Amino acid sequence: MAEVHATRRDRLRERCAAAGVGAALVTRPANVRYLTGCAPPGSALLVGPGGDDILVHLRPPPDDDGGQRGGAGPQTAPDDLRSTVLPAPDGDAAVAAATLARESHAGSLAVEEHHLTVARHRAIRSVTDGMPMSDLGGAVEQLRLVKDEHEIAALRIAAEIADQALGELLESILVGRTERHLALELERRLVDHGADCAAFPTSVGTGPHSGTARHIPTDRRVEEGDFLTVRLGACYRGYRCEVGRTFVIGTAPAGWQIDLYDLVFNAQRAGREALAPGVACRDVDGATRGPLLAAGHGEGVAQWSGHGVGLEIDEDPQLSPAAMGKLDACVPVTVEPGVHLPGRGGVRIDDTLVVRPVADGGPELLTITTKELLAL
Amino acid sequence: MAEVHATRRDRLRERCAAAGVGAALVTRPANVRYLTGCAPPGSALLVGPGGDDILVHLRPPPDDDGGQRGGAGPQTAPDDLRSTVLPAPDGDAAVAAATLARESHAGSLAVEEHHLTVARHRAIRSVTDGMPMSDLGGAVEQLRLVKDEHEIAALRIAAEIADQALGELLESILVGRTERHLALELERRLVDHGADCAAFPTSVGTGPHSGTARHIPTDRRVEEGDFLTVRLGACYRGYRCEVGRTFVIGTAPAGWQIDLYDLVFNAQRAGREALAPGVACRDVDGATRGPLLAAGHGEGVAQWSGHGVGLEIDEDPQLSPAAMGKLDACVPVTVEPGVHLPGRGGVRIDDTLVVRPVADGGPELLTITTKELLAL
Known about the structure:
By secondary structure, chain A is of the alpha+beta class. The first copy, chain A, folds into two domains: about 1-145, Creatinase/prolidase N-terminal domain (Creatine Amidinohydrolase, Chain A, domain 1), CATH 3.40.350.10; about 145-365, Creatine Amidinohydrolase. In chain A, about 35% of the residues lie in helices and about 20% in strands. Chain A is built from nine helices and 19 strands. Chain A has a six-stranded mixed β-sheet. In chain A, strands 7-10-11 form a three-stranded antiparallel β-sheet. In chain A, strands 8-9-12 form a three-stranded antiparallel β-sheet, covered by helices on one side. The longest helix of chain A has 22 residues, at about 150-170. Chain A is elongated, with a radius of gyration of 23 Å. Residues about 60-70 of chain A have low confidence and may be disordered.
């Protein structure tokens, strides 16, 4: 795996060279992890012109065993990467790395201005002795867009864990339990099945809370006749997926519930079927959003129909009306339309898929929990 | 409670006026919450010269019920505070607030340069039309140092919840259970007893993992003869406390375990007893650290002996050898020495206390779980 990270750093190095930048200072944790395989808290990576890359990090705690709970990942650098412990225990690794850049005569330094605070940027500038500084922008995020097969394999396992946790919940008694307890139980099951941690705070919404994207679980209890919306994800080796489903509680759904479910189901299917290399992100959004707008649900629909996933749960590309750009093969995205009717509740259906060309069988569905309207 | 927040904003306004600053733009979430009582994600607060404060936030989700899980707090602004929804759904509330500052002819704008990224700072500058911008620095963090009785009351309840969760765990069978399961169970109990969420990721370390500050729970199981170190905290109405204890598993501790425990216990007591208004923070650290250094444990001891708590779990003041400043009354801090012996484990004891003058009975201990060496 170490070669994978070295190759990624080489690609960043090429981009820097093409832009006339001497060295890149990477501080955003997911970007550090992408380029090194590890992300010790507060670490900073210097990608230099000659392959002399250095990871500056804090002294690892004495009990460091590479534990991955919390998703921070292994805390020690791979063998092929020079790593150095932050000289001052209360210092800033980015400042220490910038000092090394100055000493190595890199010429100029690009930093992540969308991640560094103004105060840290000033501290870095104060040690670089007039060396020109520029904005690295989203260069590493761009590299992260298209996933390799190792990354997709991790996402597949993350999706399998989320499906398992959700499947077990469906076999248990739900009526009378609170949203908070169901959410906590799902998170416990994710870890039981091997997740590093939950990919994001699990959302469980019942009755009037159902159908929204980011409902924070409350003490409301599941009741007969409710819609129940669940949205959860696992983080596995740093890679995060998500799955969302809506069920109905009791013997048979009401007419309005069946109609609303069918509408969202069809919108979500249209979005999934629109995924292909070369398709504009906004067109996938349009395919998903169109049926909901046509049915008069403009108000209750979110600003986006889906987004990329990977080392972060919400990455590029965005699937929204204003999104620029087109999909590539091997880009994992969510498709997650929903409709919420104030006071009544609603439906959300959320899958993680990998964009694949038709020749490879079209989009690969990672989250395979059934999308039938189950009455539980 | 609304007056409390208005009074806090007035204090910030006075500081700004004294520094010749027209308006302050507050973006750090804990600071926004301190000044408004709420902290909708991505919100920004403009504190203007004439009391015309404005909170800019995203449109609340349709199911907003002020749910507090996750510790984000109520999502809607109090009645006395003008609030406005971010005009562009994918915009930046800080940029929108800066536009309002320009329109209000505030004259100059101080921003939180330790929180804003370089990219956001640039976006703000681009809409302020040449209005002078300066650094607000830690002005709000300074206001947050000394807590009022409402804040201390919330911390007391947070401590009570953490003590309850820990107490229940001690009554259960521990041998054979994994660190991860014990940590998850503690977090569930925190929520069961009314916590908004865990104040930080619960740490459970057994055997060779015991005695460290931030051990990430693993699948290691509790064994007879182990030291077991637990560190957890509750977040209640946004306020976060912590408690840490070390126990021994089995019938009787070994001689080295008793000796090490006594050493850390005495160090922690010395630190607690050193807490008083007017005492230098570094002297509290010295009182705590001294016994450990004298016993030859320089290597295995952390860089700090404690820290402030409040809306964040790690706030000013720091109790460390290099800390400047003195303690004030009504400042809650942790005292948490520990010694870790590589390969064997160790002891940590961690309390949250409020600094009080001797006339008021001296430091107020919030976390009252026993510090006897229990054999479980």
